[in-house]
Amino acid sequence: MGFSSASQIIQGIAERARAERIRCHYTQAELAERSGVPLSTYKRFEREGQIALESLAKVAIALRMESELNGLFEKTAASFESLDAVERSLSSQPNKPRRVRHTSK
Predict the structure, then answer these.
(1) Residue ranges of domains in the chain, CATH in brackets
(2) CA 63 – CA 71 distance, rounded (Å)
(3) Is the pTM value of this prediction over 0.70?
(4) CB within 8 A of 41, min separation 6: which ones?
(5) Which residue in 44, 59, 60, 69 has its CB near the most CB atoms, within 10 A?
């Protein structure tokens, strides 16, 4: 997975929202009404990617995609928990005996 700029991420989200809206057979006006977001706000979101987080959440709920938005940072948190668990596991293991070489004098 490569790194993206903020504008690439935002535009990708707007494109996926538009694709889902079309898949659900909603017009922009219908989705705006269902979500409670002003039509002009929704149109700007699809066109420019600009939208407030609260409005994005409303759109996600209207598209039944709230779980995707709700899980936005879950993977990162789980990774840290996993790393902490690994570190605890490693620190609780007894040290293995090390080989000692005896050299002749």
Answers:
(1) 6-91 (1.10.260.40)
(2) 16
(3) no
(4) 32, 51, 52, 55
(5) 59
